[in-house]
Design brief:
The structure holds two protein chains of two kinds. By secondary structure, chain A is an all-alpha fold. Chain A is built from three helices and no strands. The longest helix of chain B has 39 residues, at 50-88. Chain B is globular and about 75 Å long. Classes of the chains: A mainly alpha, B mainly alpha.
């Protein structure tokens, strides 16, 4: 009674990745978009894992989630006129 | 996915235990009357499937690791810091229970009993998930550290890189957590902490590059075997070891680089709005990360589980780890907290050149050395 889980898991993770990528676009709150972007990058890293290239998936996490995403968040937070839903924060 | 997980002793033991347990469950089911021809017979077949048994044994190993992390590593390290700081300050430290061993449990119960307060305008989902991310990454790092060449949870070929990749998720979680509290000062604190963590990851990664040049592997077990064959890496990589230690202290946010959570002048930095058990878990994860950095240093530079015979290897690794944590506490007792511009200056202008010099030295050793290097 052996069942092959690989296609099912791949479809689940690919669906999550695509869903996170769509959420980046439709989310109103821009910092949440950055969070969903991080999920997208992790999903891409998992896709690399399914392609048997562990090294590039780890580098994807290290560079994109650990550095690029933090850079984007820095940019967002340094230029944001108001915090979430509140008044202007000058 | 062709990831070959080799079975260490812990897995074989758990596998036999779980198969015995599930066999007993099958016996019980047969006793109730679920047997050939019954409607529920596929369930019984599923229980003794080797894949399912393997899955359950993995789950149990994960649970064992989790309990070990939180009870052994975290609490021991916190207790060590309290008692040692007390001794450094010429007092006795905590004295709750026997030698102060019950103090951590008392603190844990206290944080559990606190009311859970979420700020009214906070982003509730992100506010919660930032803590989950920090805890998950810390526990995942814990599973990577082997104790012995045949006693580990996972032994992937790229273990060191995986550890650093998981480590680099911390600034993201900190920024998110600081932003979700909906407070100007937590946002600023989160940005300060993330700048520090990113600045100090660069020298750490460069030191790891030099280590890979020396040993030709990213796997902990192979690195320690290389040290067993040649020499412990502290000798050729002395500059790199110093850099790694300083950068590691900065990565886990301990004094002298304590600015992200300065209790006295900046009120806890990015975790100001976190209260109750969330705050307790964040603090526990800080100490777990400190333990992990000490264990990594012991494996990479001090030969891990190598040592004279009568003491087993895992005990050697723990002894070296706790000695390194003692050094960290010593640094904490001796130093003061430094300003944020000094933190960035030390990271970019001192440690980065040191790491590059270390890389050059390692390449020269590799090229010009004669014999067994």
């Amino acid at each position: 009674m052996a069942f092959d889980l690989a296609p099912i898991t791949f479809m689940v993770f690919a669906g999550l990745t695509v869903g996170a990528a769509i959420s980046v676009l439709v989310t109103k709150e821009i910092v949440r978009s950055a969070v969903f972007l991080a999920f997208t990058f992790v999903g891409v890293a998992i896709t690399y894992l399914f392609l048997n290239s562990e090294f590039i998936s780890l580098i994807q996490i290290l560079v994109y989630v650990g550095a690029i995403n933090v850079l984007i968040l820095f940019g967002v937070m340094l230029t944001k006129r108001r915090l979430m839903g509140g008044g202007a924060c000058e | 996915m062709n990831i070959d997980l080799d079975f260490s002793t812990i897995y074989t033991f758990m596998f036999s235990l779980v198969s015995w347990l599930l066999w007993a469950v099958g016996r019980v089911l047969g006793f109730i009357g679920i047997d050939e021809g019954s409607f529920f017979y596929p369930i019984k077949q599923f229980l003794v499937d080797p894949q399912f048994v393997t899955f359950v044994s993995y789950l149990l190993v994960a649970v064992i690791y989790f309990v070990f992390v939180f009870l052994f590593a975290g609490l021991t390290v916190i207790w060590m810091e309290r008692k040692l700081l007390g001794r450094f300050m010429d007092r006795r430290g905590t004295q709750v229970g026997v030698l102060g061993l019950f103090q951590n449990f008392a603190d844990g119960i206290k944080t559990l009993l606190k009311e859970i307060i979420i700020p009214r305008d906070a982003d509730q989902k992100v506010y919660t998930w930032a803590v989950v991310l920090i805890i998950a990454t810390s526990a995942m790092l814990m599973g990577l550290v082997p104790w012995d060449d045949e006693f580990y949870a996972v032994n992937v070929p790229l273990a060191l890189l995986l550890g650093l990749a998981v480590f680099s998720l911390a600034p993201f979680a900190i920024l998110i957590g600081g932003w979700a509290s909906n407070n100007k000062y937590t946002v600023i604190g989160g940005m300060r902490a993330a700048a520090q963590l990113i600045a100090y990851e660069v020298p750490m990664l460069l030191v790891v590059v030099s280590l890979v040049v020396m040993t030709g592997s990213l796997n902990f077990v192979e690195i320690v075997n290389w040290q067993n064959d040649n020499i412990i890496l502290l000798v050729p990589l002395a500059i790199g070891a110093l850099t790694f230690f300083v950068a590691g202290i900065a990565e886990v946010e301990r004094v002298p680089f304590d600015l992200p959570e300065a209790e006295a002048e900046l009120v806890e930095g990015w975790q100001t709005e976190y209260g109750g058990f969330r705050w307790g878990l964040i603090m526990l994860c800080d100490y777990i990360r400190a333990y992990i950095v000490c264990a990594l240093f012991a494996i990479l530079f001090l030969g891990g589980w190598l040592g004279p015979e009568p003491i087993p290897g895992a005990v050697w690794l723990l002894l070296k780890t706790f000695f390194l944590f003692f050094m960290m506490v010593w640094v904490r007792a001796a130093m003061v907290r430094i300003r944020t511009d000094q933190i960035l200056k030390i990271g970019w202008r001192r440690l980065l050149p040191l790491a590059v010099i270390n890389l050059v030295v390692v390449v020269l050793i590799k090229v010009y050395s004669v014999g067994g290097w």
